[in-house]
Amino acid sequence: MSSVLNISEDQRDCLQEITNVAMGQAGDRLARLLDTFVVLSIPHIEVMAPSDIAMALHSIDKNDSVSGVCQGFIGGGISGEAMLIFNDTSFTDLAQLMKYDDALDEQAERELLMDTTNVLFGACLRGIAEQIDMEFSYGPPMVLGQHMRLKEIFDQNNSRWSHALVTEINYQLEGYNVNCDLLIVMTDNSLDIVLKKLDYLIQ
User: Fold this and answer.
1) How many whole angstroms separate alpha carbon 190 and alpha carbon 118?
2) In this predicted model, what pLDDT tens digit does every residue of 148-197 receive, in sequence order?
3) Residue 165 near residue 7 (C-beta atoms within 8 A)
4) Count: domains in the chain
5) Residues 49-102: pLDDT tens digits?
6) Which helix (H) or strand (E) holds 89?
7) Which domain range does residue 43 map to?
8) In the 8-state DSSP scheme, what is residue 4?
9) Which long-range contacts (CB under 8 A, 24 or more apart) does 25-30 make?
10) Alpha helices of 35-90 — where are they, by DSSP H?
11) Contact 189, 65 (CB under 8 A)
12) Residue 75 is part of a domain; what is its CATH number?
């Protein structure tokens, strides 16, 4: 599918390295916040249509109930969204790690989602922006849905793009049942600039 936008292997490798650094910084911040070891997957990078994203998530069972948050970003001709998809079995352990003692109702789960999102999105997007010498402005984070199937989350997130460059990485907390996928989605209108940035770094 990458032929849609003619991404070379060198460009893919470069973006993977940038993402590795940025998402590693985000994982380190989360590890410090929760005082536990964070296990990261290798970034998976693909060009895909919105309808393909749910099917592309490798580490979440398609039948599992999930909750998700997204946050838009824009700057220097690049725009996109960061998305965090949580397996719903994560909430009990996440509440324990964050020392959240109140009843774990839907509002409490939303707060846990937002707290985790703020840590991961902030560090990750800043890390990417710094490496490609750009500054992003951010929209407010929004809950995509709670206790839904993956397909339902993405079906209702009516995207405004036909194809996008999607980078996915999975975070797990060692010794805890916490599993989430962080996606960085850069829209088709941004990709000329993204690829030029990558070419400059490759040289």
Assistant:
1) 24
2) 887 787 765 556 667 788 888 888 888 888 888 899 988 888 888 888 88
3) yes
4) 1
5) 777 777 767 566 666 788 989 999 999 899 999 999 988 888 888 888 888 877
6) none
7) 2-202
8) G
9) 25/123, 25/124, 25/126, 25/127, 26/119, 26/120, 26/121, 26/122, 26/123, 26/124, 26/127, 26/182, 27/120, 27/171, 28/123, 29/119, 29/120, 29/122, 29/123, 30/116, 30/119, 30/120, 30/171
10) 50-56
11) no
12) 3.40.1550.10
> Looking at the predicted structure, is the pLDDT value of residue 2 above 70?
no
H helices of the chain, in order, are 9-34, 50-56, 91-97, 106-131, 150-156, 191-202
Distances (CA, A) of 128 to 77, 125, 144, 158: 15, 5, 23, 25
Q: Partners of 148 in the beta sheet?
A: 66
The rounded distance, in Å, linking the Cα atoms of 164 and 53 is: 10
Residues across the chain: 203
